[in-house]
Write a structure and sequence with these properties.
Length: 170
């Protein structure tokens, strides 16, 4: 299974397979993540190296502390990444960012209101397509400038759902 991991401004593509973890298409490394039961403590073994980690799940990803440093980490599986790409949620833009429907479907829930500040990774709209609910998230921090759909609306692929004005993460 392929994953896209973002740490700060760096995006890493990795694939988990029977041989281990493959980073950016390079050779496989053995990997193991051990959990200390009942805690947020983990120990990551990657190849011959090991690191103690403290992990905390947040709505917009993970906060991982390793070696005395904190990292905000987002992880997308291949399916979520593809949906975001289809929705036009690629690299941040200088101007307004439009969240577009990645496929035809039904707007199940609006998770934001006009004027609301959002961080990258915050949920904006829940859409049902092919009998599955998909939460579409903000790829940039900003303010909700416009909501162009209502709950219960049927939308076509490419329809603009929400418009964000670029801003700073809160």
């Amino acid at each position: 299974m392929k994953y896209y991991v973002t740490v700060g401004d760096q995006r890493i593509e990795l694939e988990l397979g029977p041989e281990g973890v493959v980073f950016e298409g390079e050779g496989a490394l053995s990997a193991e993540l051990a959990t200390v039961p009942g805690s947020s403590l983990r120990h990551l073994l990657l190849g011959d190296a090991g690191w103690p980690l403290v992990t905390r799940r947040q709505e917009s990803g993970w906060v991982i502390t390793a070696g005395g440093r904190r990292f905000h980490v987002q992880v997308e599986d291949e399916r979520t990444h593809s949906i975001r790409e289809l929705a036009g949620l690629g690299a941040p833009a200088d101007g307004p960012t439009e969240l577009r429907a990645p496929m035809p479907g039904l707007v199940v829930r609006l998770l934001v209101e006009t004027g609301q500040d959002v961080d990258r990774g915050d949920g904006l709209v829940v859409m049902e397509a092919m009998k599955m609910e998909n939460e579409l998230r903000a790829d940039v921090a900003g303010r909700v400038a416009e909501i162009r759909v209502q709950e219960g609306a049927t939308v076509a692929q490419g329809d603009v759902l929400v418009v964000l004005e670029a801003g700073e993460e809160t």
